[in-house]
């Protein structure tokens, strides 16, 4: 195998999950390209490699559509961090995280860290709206605005799960408060069987971002990258013990599941 | 015209006196049909006349010339092969190009047919739906009669997505081709224009027609009105309907509906669609297709603008034979277990395609599957960033299974050269991505990208025949291997076919020629067609299918000489115009996982079919 390709081997995996139209691709695009532009519904999953200091971090931007739901656990396998994304203006998108997406993370690393991210904060938070990203102004404001307020299909929404903040099924478009997100984070930890005291605190792992203005986007990714570094170092140590483990691991996976 | 008036009257009466609607002739199937018609098509008498007169201008010319064509002029009973009583009745109103001379008699017959219809006994289901329809009609007519609303909708298309179109507006009715997909329960799944919700009762009527005919142990295939052709296609639990005012044949329209069906299958697989509807008859399939509308929209735009779909053949980018071979070899060397197809695409055209050995022995990649792949790539600009890994089904290869497609552009940020690798292994992303690195390195070493960038389609002037404006040539014997992917070659469309309207006009002429050649009742081998602004010659033999377009002043003798020259030129250039010897590879002997299953007599990669072909 050529030397070049070996260097590119990712050290750690970060996965973006969340319902359709919450802005996963836009978040990643804002972070990598420093731009906000119209995106098209993602097909399957898109793989990006991000150089973070001496490390290669792979980021999987997954499709939120139900059509690709079956692939979620494959994208999550061995993930060191999962970014659970919702739309702050759409309560249902937060509920979907718990109903549809949380179970996909079963294949992630046991020490995987979770971030709960409310995107489109510019629509409810003046602070996020006024934020100026170094990358420049978003182009074509009005059109994007229109795209984002596209109606969600209410009929296809199941009733939201019981939670302290749970509204009646009717007002699913009410904004999501920070407390809702914090409460979800607590439930994620319980689902994973993790102690709240020994895990990362909710204040640190619940973000509100705006891919449109860039608000909190760098903070989100950089916080996560710093947090997964120990995981990288551990993996590197394991690799030193057996330098070929990466390849073998790949093969092993392939042999386990074959699907058509 | 008479029919049209009748429709207008019926509509007027129903709308002005809604309480008495049950006592009106809405009880008949035909009225419900005309109601569907009224919703779909405007009753614009003037426009109809225009269409008829242009048809009249063109057809006599064609008939005069038709003695050279090897066709019979017997006036066959129109649509005699059609299955349904309803259809034969409606067929009388169709503008049948084959039977210009019998038009007037048809119109006379039509009157009697209509009378008979009126006395037909009513059908309960249809009546109910006709009533539902009437309510919607009321809204529709209101919208149309208001000048304010009309002005609004005329301006709107500039900033409104066609998803938000007002389905009661005149502009919506005027679309050249509507496509609807619905479930057997009558639930809307897709509409090319307007939102599915707004069209749910229209689709309900369509489903009523389908089930009404089905209840008589029959299948509804098409409905003809003067301006429109309505074509139905039932595939498993899905019903696809096309309402077209283009002059395409029923078979062509049905072929297009089949592409729409295949694109849906490519996203969900046939097996899962059947499973879903077996489980829950009134499932809302839009849940699973949400986000894919743009892929279907893109497909329908391509179907209208790209003759590949009409010809069921793949258009590959002309490339020096040596360059294409070296690209194939690069693909052939970058393999991993369970990789089955490696495809290189530039400017949305095929550069080369390399297949796994056992796969090519069992089956071949169908052009339709390639079209669906090309459409998927074209419709998803998201592919331009990052490396995509997504399940995709190739419906003609196997409608029930997924391949896993790796899609990545090799020349960011331009994103014109795209690599597509198909594996049968869901987990193979990293292994397949590794193949891409190898391909990238090899291509960099050979400077392939800059050579590909120079490749372009050719001009018809290179053929050196002065009167020849454009052609499409589809050989059946390239290379001398019947397993080969069907291809065609065609030059760029040049003046006078530079505007979108002119391009479409030429394609429409080709579609007309194609429908004549492939007519199910009277297939033709050769047509010399003098149209208003050009002369066309279509010729099909056991070796090829050829469509040519000449300037209008060409003589028959000239055209025939030109075609001889053209065929000679293609023969000389065929190494450049077509993928001649597609190489194969064999991935590690692990045949059990290949979706087509196990041939164990695989040879080593170095000693495969490619070398033996050379």
Core attributes:
heterodimer, A: 260 residues, alpha/beta, Rossmann fold, six-stranded mixed β-sheet, disordered N terminus, disordered C terminus, B: 614 residues, alpha+beta, Beta-Lactamase, 3 domains, five-stranded antiparallel β-sheet, 22 helices, FUZ/MON1/HPS1_longin_1 (chain B), FUZ/MON1/HPS1_longin_3 (chain B), Mon1 (chain B), Vacuolar fusion protein MON1 homolog (chain B), G protein activity (chain A)
How would you describe this structure to a colleague?
The complex is a heterodimer of chains A (260) and B (614). Chain A has 260 residues and is an alpha/beta fold. Chain A has 10 helices and 6 strands; from the N terminus they run αβαββαβαβααααβαα. Chain A has a 6-stranded mixed beta sheet, with helices on both faces. In chain A, strand 2 and strand 3 form a beta hairpin. The radius of gyration of chain A is 19 Å and the shape is globular. With 614 residues, chain B is α+β, with helices and mostly antiparallel strands. Chain B folds into 3 domains: 295 residues, Beta-Lactamase (2-Layer Sandwich); 168 residues, Dynein light chain 2a, cytoplasmic (Beta-Lactamase, 2-Layer Sandwich), CATH 3.30.450; 118 residues, Beta-Lactamase (2-Layer Sandwich), CATH 3.30.450. Chain B has a 6-stranded mixed beta sheet with strand order 9-10-11-7-8-17. The N and C termini of chain B lie far apart (64 Å). The N terminus and C terminus of chain B are likely disordered. At the A-B interface, helix 2, strand 2 and helix 10 of A face helix 12, strand 9 and helix 18 of B. Chain B: Pfam families: Fuz_longin_1, Fuz_longin_2, Fuz_longin_3. Chain B: This is Vacuolar fusion protein MON1 homolog. Chain B: Plays an important role in membrane trafficking through the secretory apparatus. Chain B: One of its GO terms (biological process) is vesicle-mediated transport.
């Amino acid at each position: 195998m050529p030397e070049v390709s070996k260097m590119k081997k990712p050290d750690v995996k970060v996965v973006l999950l969340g319902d359709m139209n919450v802005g996963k691709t836009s978040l990643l695009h804002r972070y990598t390209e420093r731009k906000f532009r119209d995106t098209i519904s993602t097909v399957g999953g898109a793989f990006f490699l991000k150089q973070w200091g001496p490390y290669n971090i792979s980021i999987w931007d997954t499709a939120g559509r139900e059509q690709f739901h079956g692939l979620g656990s494959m994208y999550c396998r061995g993930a060191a961090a999962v970014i659970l994304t919702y739309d702050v203006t759409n309560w249902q998108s937060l509920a979907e995280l718990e109903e549809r997406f949380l179970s996909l993370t079963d294949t992630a690393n046991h020490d995987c860290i979770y971030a709960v991210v409310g995107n489109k904060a510019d629509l409810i938070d003046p602070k996020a709206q006024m934020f100026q990203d170094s990358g420049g102004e978003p182009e074509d404001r009005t059109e994007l605005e229109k795209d984002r307020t596209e109606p969600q299909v209410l009929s296809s929404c199941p009733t939201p799960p019981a939670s302290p903040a749970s509204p009646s099924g009717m007002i699913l478009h009410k904004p999501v408060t920070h407390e809702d997100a914090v409460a979800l984070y607590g439930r994620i930890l319980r689902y994973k069987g993790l102690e709240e005291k020994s895990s990362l605190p909710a204040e640190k792992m619940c973000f509100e971002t705006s891919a449109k203005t860039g608000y909190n986007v760098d903070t989100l990714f950089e916080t996560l990258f710093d947090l997964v570094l120990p995981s990288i170092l551990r993996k590197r140590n394991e690799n030193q013990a057996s330098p070929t483990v990466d390849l073998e691991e790949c093969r092993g996976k392939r042999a386990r599941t074959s699907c058509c | 015209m008479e029919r049209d008036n009748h429709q207008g009257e019926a509509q007027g009466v129903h709308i002005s006196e809604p309480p008495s609607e049950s006592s009106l002739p809405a009880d008949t199937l035909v009225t419900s049909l005309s109601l569907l018609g009224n919703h779909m098509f405007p009753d614009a008498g003037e426009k109809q006349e225009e269409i008829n007169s242009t048809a009249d201008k063109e057809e006599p010319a064609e008939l005069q010339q038709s003695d050279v064509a090897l066709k019979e002029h017997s006036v066959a009973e129109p649509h005699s092969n059609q299955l349904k009583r309803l259809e034969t009745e409606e067929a009388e109103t169709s503008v049948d190009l084959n039977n210009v001379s019998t038009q007037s008699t048809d119109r006379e017959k039509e009157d009697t047919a209509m009378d008979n219809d009126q006395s037909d006994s009513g059908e309960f289901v249809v009546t109910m739906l006709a009533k539902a329809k009437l309510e919607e009609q009321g809204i529709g007519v209101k919208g149309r009669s208001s000048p304010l609303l009309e002005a609004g909708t005329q301006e709107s298309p500039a900033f409104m997505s066609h998803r938000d179109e007002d389905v009661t507006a005149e502009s919506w009715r005027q679309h050249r081709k509507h496509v609807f997909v619905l479930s057997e329960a009558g639930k809307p799944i897709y509409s090319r224009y307007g939102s599915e919700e707004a069209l749910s009762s229209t689709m309900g009527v369509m489903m009523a027609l389908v089930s009404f005919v089905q209840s008589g142990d029959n299948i509804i295939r098409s409905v003809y009105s003067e301006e429109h052709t309505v074509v139905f296609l039932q595939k498993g639990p899905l019903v696809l309907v096309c309402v077209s005012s283009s002059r395409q044949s029923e078979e062509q329209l049905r072929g297009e509906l089949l592409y729409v069906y295949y694109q849906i299958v490519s996203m969900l697989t046939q097996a899962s669609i059947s499973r879903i509807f077996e489980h829950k008859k009134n499932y809302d399939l839009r849940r699973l297709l949400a986000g894919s509308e743009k892929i279907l929209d893109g497909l329908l735009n391509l179907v209208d603008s790209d003759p590949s779909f009409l010809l069921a053949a793949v258009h590959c980018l002309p490339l020096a034979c040596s360059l294409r071979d070296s690209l194939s070899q690069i693909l052939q060397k970058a393999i991993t277990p369970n990789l089955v197809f490696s495809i290189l695409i530039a400017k949305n055209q095929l550069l080369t395609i390399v297949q796994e050995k056992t796969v090519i022995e069992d089956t071949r990649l169908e052009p339709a599957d390639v079209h669906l792949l090309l459409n998927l790539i074209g419709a998803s600009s998201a592919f331009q960033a990052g490396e995509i890994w997504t399940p995709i089904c190739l419906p003609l290869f196997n409608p029930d299974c997924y391949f896993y497609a790796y899609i990545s552009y090799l020349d960011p940020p331009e994103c014109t050269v795209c690599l597509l690798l198909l594996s049968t292994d869901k987990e193979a992303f990293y292994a397949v991505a590794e193949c891409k690195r190898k391909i990238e390195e090899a291509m960099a070493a050979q400077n392939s990208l800059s050579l590909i960038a120079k490749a372009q389609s050719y001009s018809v002037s290179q053929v050196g025949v002065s009167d020849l404006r454009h052609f499409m040539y589809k050989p059946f014997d390239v290379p001398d291997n019947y397993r080969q992917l069907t291809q065609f070659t065609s030059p760029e469309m040049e003046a006078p076919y530079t505007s979108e309207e002119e391009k479409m006009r030429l394609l429409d002429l080709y579609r007309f020629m194609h429908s004549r050649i492939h007519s199910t009742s009277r297939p033709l081998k050769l047509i010399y067609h003098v149209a208003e602004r050009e002369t066309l010659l279509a010729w099909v033999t056991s070796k090829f299918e050829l469509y040519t377009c000449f300037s209008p002043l060409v003589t028959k003798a000239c055209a025939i000489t030109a075609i001889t020259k053209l065929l000679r030129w293609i023969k000389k250039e065929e190494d450049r115009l077509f993928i001649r010897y597609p190489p194969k590879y064999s991935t590690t002997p692990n045949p059990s996982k290949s979706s087509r299953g196990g041939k164990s007599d695989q040879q080593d990669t170095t000693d495969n079919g490619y070398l033996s072909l050379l």
